[in-house]
Specification:
- It is a single chain.
- With 268 residues, this protein is an alpha/beta fold.
- The protein has a single domain, classed as Alpha-Beta Complex (Spore Coat Polysaccharide Biosynthesis Protein SpsA, Chain A).
- Helix content is 36%, strand content 15%.
- It is built from eight helices and nine strands.
- It has a seven-stranded mixed sheet with strand order 3-2-1-4-6-5-7, with helices on both faces. Strands 8-9 form a two-stranded antiparallel ribbon.
Length: 268
């Protein structure tokens, strides 16, 4: 718990047996009130290991995809009373020690969403990120910043935190079950008027680090750009996108439109 708010850590897992224990060992259990492992039909012993580590384990009977896994993570965390939800990949690519910092930024009331950026601090390449991934990350992030009107260092990190309000306000079930989910949820948060912050995070690419192949990466890239264009058309009022209209808007937004007439990308 932090600032009187219950913190849940969610671990969307697929074949994470080799790295799960190291990841969990570095999570601060004085801050994390609940640690949830959602196993996406792994072929190894990920779920069994999670139970041995005293995690709350949810096992999918079949693989639903990375986005689908996150939907289960957030739905379960909220149902179990979480006020702040931090997603940590169990492949040990990101530092679990920073979890309290992400949670604290949400608890401060200054931010609704917090991203742990591999780009801030220039540690991505040093941490082993392949250069082609780095270049693609920078290109896609620049495109998204232009179309979404933001100034984020990256949109593609898998280490992030959300407030309960965010997770109960957005139409998460209407998003993709694949990797582009990460970008769609940020577009939703921006359209609803939620505030996004960032923190620098070192990264490590090791043998057991999860990664998507070239073909899936290409599909992801097209999906990212399509999401950004969809958002832009939506906020300009040229083409309404139903999934960008929140179930409940933040205080400054009503029915998916800003009460002061200014969208986040228009603010100075």
């Amino acid at each position: 718990m932090i600032g009187g708010r219950r913190v849940a850590v969610v671990l969307p897992a697929y074949n994470a047996e080799q790295t799960l224990a190291r990841t969990v060992a570095e999570l601060d259990r004085e801050i994390a009130d609940d640690i949830l492992l959602v196993d996406d039909a792994s072929t190894d012993a990920t779920a069994d290991l999670g139970r041995q580590l005293s995690l709350h384990v949810v096992s999918h009977p079949y693989n639903v995809g990375y986005g689908g896994n996150q939907k289960t993570c957030y739905q379960t965390a909220v149902a179990r009373g979480a006020d702040i939800v931090v997603m940590v990949h169990p492949d040990y690519q990101y530092s679990p020690r920073l979890m309290p910092s992400l949670a604290a930024m949400i608890a401060s009331g200054e931010y609704d969403v917090v991203l742990a950026s591999r780009i801030l601090g220039n540690g991505a390449i040093r941490g082993g990120m392949p250069r082609y991934k780095y270049v693609a990350n920078r290109f896609l992030t620049a495109t998204e910043n232009l179309l979404l009107g933001t100034k984020l260092s990256e949109f593609h990190t898998g280490y992030r935190a959300y407030s309960r309000e965010v997770l109960t306000s957005l139409r998460l079930q209407e998003l993709s079950d694949n990797f582009v989910f990460d970008n769609q949820i940020l577009a939703q948060a921006l359209a609803a008027g939620f505030r996004i912050g960032e923190i620098s995070c070192p990264t490590r690419y090791e043998t057991n680090s999860s990664s998507i192949g070239p073909r899936a990466s290409l599909r992801y890239g097209f999906g990212v750009v399509a999401t950004a264009f969809t958002y832009r058309l939506h906020v300009l009022g040229w083409r309404q996108c139903p999934y960008l209209i929140p179930l409940v808007s933040s205080a400054r937004f009503r029915d998916g439109r800003p009460t002061d007439g200014v969208f986040p990308h228009d603010a100075s």
